[in-house]
């Protein structure tokens, strides 16, 4: 079933006015640090007093439609309400964040397509440390976690790789991804006046006892424990994922592979320097790598990839790795996220993650270099990356591309972490100047 958004009413406008202070405190808000203009573009009336506001947030190069489920309670919040859920007061209503609200969840499941699951919405638990979206764990009637609902925060019409790709991978028999159990779609009118239909969220099978790959790697790095074995197994899993993606989606042409990759790196540089002007200090060095890539005679065939693979997108449970979060880079447009690409891009994403894990785990200098070198060797061996000059250049270019993305991502979201991509740029390019200092 596709839910249909209606024109926002006065109450929706009042709620959106409250979001001006609430949204910037959300981890998933993509326009932090800006004075974004917020406008309601549509509302889904899901249940009595439960609405899903579709809110356009516009600031600089950010122009997105956000999904904000709210409960509108007449009078004061019910006793025992977590104060962290209170968005504010609109007229005689208390506005509550409803992502984990039983009424919202029951209505969501009633409107969903897919095989479905038997879950207890009254025992839902919102995952803390939310990232680009909001995840809610739903237990079955026996209290054991059964599914995890991802409430997408930035909406887009059309295909959503985070839902469509796992569905296809399960169809071709790959079991390294949690199976999608239910998904919802809605129709709305875009700020440009176009009719859009897009996904609102997905309920996926819960992986029991799963540990986030990034937390695991940080823990091991912090303890000085070599990560080679899990990294090798991860390489094997990622190779299996790429095979399954080819079985499901086929391969694209690579006729213009080198030129397209070089051009993508130059585009990334232009995007990054516009967003974070001091990155202009690396421009010449990045262009030199792009020029080397452009001279390659051939590149591997393009195929569907994960697109934003890092250690936070893999879960380890009972000695196995699972891959999640196929939405691609949240800062990139949909067309770019579903385009066939080099499979090595995913490998490069994980290589970048080892730098992050070493740094966040507290390693510095030679100890950090040795830990990451070992993890890198494991991943490359497990994946089966051929040790030749072409693969090395491609990986360098792809790591560089990802590091530029990270420099922007960290500047926007975690300014305290900008030193990590900065160090990555230095490792990949040699000493570079990315500050305005002389
Ligand atoms: N199928 C699953 N089983 C168990 N835990 C999961 C599952 N999917 C996601 N998680 C947990 O939820 C967190 C957020 O999920 P993720 O897909 O990365 O969301 P986001 O798009 O917000 O980054 C993950 O880091 C992981 O800890
Ligand atoms: O998981 P998301 O789809 O939200 O991805 C975004 O956020 C990630 C951080 O949460 C970010 O990843 C960067 O930080 C990770 C450590 O927190 C590190 O493991 C990754 O290598 C690094 O890129 C990701 O880039 C961003 O798209």
TrEMBL record:
Annotated metabolic or biological route of this protein: Glycan biosynthesis; glycogen biosynthesis
Family matches, as InterPro entries: Aminoglycoside_PTrfase (IPR002575), Kinase-like_dom_sf (IPR011009), Mak_N_cap (IPR040999)
Gene3D superfamilies per the UniProt record, alphabetical: 3.90.1200.10
Database matches in Pfam families: APH, Mak_N_cap
Coiled-coil regions listed: none
Domain of life: Bacteria
Domain Aminoglycoside phosphotransferase: 232-353
Assembly notes: Monomer.
Family: Belongs to the aminoglycoside phosphotransferase family.
Catalytic activity, as annotated: D-maltose + ATP = alpha-maltose 1-phosphate + ADP + H(+)
Name of this protein: Maltokinase
Taxonomic lineage from the root: Bacteria, Bacillati, Actinomycetota, Actinomycetes, Micrococcales
Keywords: ATP-binding, Carbohydrate metabolism, Glycogen biosynthesis, Glycogen metabolism, Kinase, Nucleotide-binding, Transferase
Keyword Nucleotide-binding attached: yes
Maltokinase N-terminal cap domain boundaries: 22-101
EC number: 2.7.1.175
């Amino acid at each position: 079933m596709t839910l249909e958004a209606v024109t926002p009413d006065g109450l929706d406008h009042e709620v959106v006015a409250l979001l001006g202070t609430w949204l910037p405190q959300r981890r998933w808000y993509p326009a932090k640090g800006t004075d974004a203009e917020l406008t309601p573009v549509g509302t889904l009336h899901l249940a009595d007093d439960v609405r899903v506001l579709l809110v356009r947030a516009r600031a600089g190069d950010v122009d997105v439609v956000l999904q904000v489920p709210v409960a509108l309670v007449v009078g004061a919040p019910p006793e025992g309400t977590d104060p962290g859920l209170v968005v504010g007061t609109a007229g005689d209503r208390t506005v509550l964040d409803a992502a984990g609200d039983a009424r919202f969840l029951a209505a969501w499941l009633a409107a969903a397509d897919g095989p479905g699951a038997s879950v207890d919405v009254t025992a839902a638990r919102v995952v803390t440390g939310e990232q680009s979206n909001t995840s809610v764990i739903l237990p079955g009637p026996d209290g054991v976690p059964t599914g995890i609902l991802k409430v997408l925060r930035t909406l887009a019409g059309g295909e959503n790789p985070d839902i469509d790709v796992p569905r296809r991978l399960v169809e071709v028999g790959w079991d390294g991804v949690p199976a999608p159990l239910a998904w919802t779609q809605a129709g709305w009118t875009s700020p440009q006046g176009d009719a859009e239909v897009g996904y609102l969220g997905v309920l996926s099978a819960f992986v029991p006892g799963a540990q986030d790959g990034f937390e695991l790697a940080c823990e091991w790095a912090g303890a000085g424990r070599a990560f080679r074995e899990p990294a090798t197994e991860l390489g094997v899993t990622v190779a299996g994922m790429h095979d399954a993606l080819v079985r499901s989606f086929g391969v694209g042409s690579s006729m213009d592979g080198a030129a397209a990759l070089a051009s993508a790196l130059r585009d990334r540089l232009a995007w990054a320097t516009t967003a974070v002007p001091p990155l202009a200090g690396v421009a010449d060095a990045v262009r030199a790598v792009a020029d080397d890539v452009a001279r390659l005679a051939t590149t591997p065939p393009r195929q569907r990839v994960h697109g934003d693979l890092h250690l936070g997108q893999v879960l380890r449970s009972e000695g196995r790795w699972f891959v999640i979060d196929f939405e691609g880079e949240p800062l990139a447009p949909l067309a770019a996220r579903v385009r066939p690409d080099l499979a090595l891009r995913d490998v490069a994403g994980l290589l970048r993650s080892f730098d992050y894990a070493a740094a966040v785990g507290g390693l510095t200098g030679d100890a950090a270099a040795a830990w990451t070198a070992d993890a890198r060797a494991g991943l490359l061996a497990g994946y089966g990356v051929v040790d030749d000059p072409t693969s090395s250049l491609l990986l360098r270019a792809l790591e560089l591309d990802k590091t530029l993305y990270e420099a922007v991502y960290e500047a926007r979201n975690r300014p305290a972490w900008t030193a990590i991509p900065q160090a990555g740029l230095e490792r990949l390019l040699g000493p570079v100047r990315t500050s305005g200092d002389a």
